[in-house]
Amino acid sequence: MTKLKQQFPNVRNGDAKTAASQDIVFISLHPPVIRDTLESIKGDVKANAAVISLAPKINPAKLSSKFVGVTNLARLIPNATSYINEGYNPVTFPAGFDSGKKKEILELLELPGRTFEVSEEKLESYPIMSAMLPTYFWFQWKELAEIGSKIGLSEEESKKSINDTLVASLDLMYKAGLTAPEVMDLIPVKPIGEHEAQITEIYKTRLLGLFEKIKP
Asked: Domain spans of the chain?
């Protein structure tokens, strides 16, 4: 909180009950503590409040069981790239969500990047395909930058090479009109090609397994 207040001086400390009594309430908690916290504030949320949960797995039915009489219950899957206002944040609103409050929330959520509506049944796919996706690659990019420094490039040269090539490679894969095999055939030498099957199996096992765990 100290670092947050240094960056945003208008941020105020407050307890959970005070936060829960506002007109717009964001539930942004670590999964192990969210259920107990919802139980502790269920009597403090106003009937006409808009509640936006950032937690996977807890669907509107489960939220409704805690906040009886509160009908404006939305869910959002946040993304770390919102830190630089380039978020990719899917949100779902149930039928009957107050249109005025919905407009207000969507305008508010324009600030951290792209926020777009999806159906409830698709929401749990986005932690796998968006929210956690950077973690599959960040450590690799860090390691590659360190390798660059060992083979003659400066830190900045390595970072620029990785950044610019990755951006162009994504465009090539998804915007060039080629099939995935056609794209992957453009570079004949694949230094870690012998490990592709192992890496693919890790993705399938870990990510599909995680998806099964976080489904409501």
From this structure: 2-120, 133-214
Q: Name the residue type at position 59.
A: N
Alpha-carbon distances of 103 from 22, 95, 98, 99, 110, rounded to whole Å: 17, 14, 9, 6, 11
Q: Please give the CATH number for the structural domain made up of 133-214.
A: 1.10.3730
Q: Are 52 and 74 in contact (CB under 8 A)?
A: yes
Give the angle 28-72-47 at the CA atoms, nearest 5°: 100
pTM, two decimals, is: 0.87
Contact 18, 41 (CB under 8 A): no
Query: What span, in angstroms and rounded, lies between the C-alpha atoms of 70 and 54?
Result: 17
For the stretch 51-54, contacts whose Cβ atoms lie closer than 8 Å and that sit 24 or more positions apart, written own/partner, are: 51/25, 51/27, 52/24, 52/25, 52/26, 52/27, 52/76, 52/91, 52/105, 53/26, 53/27, 54/26, 54/27, 54/28, 54/78
Q: Residues near 211 by Cβ (< 8 Å), separated by ≥ 6?
A: 124, 125, 128
For the domain made up of 2-120, the CATH class stated in words is alpha beta
Whether residue 52 has pLDDT greater than 70: yes
Q: Which of 7-11, 29-33, 110-114, 157-161 has the highest mean pLDDT?
A: 157-161
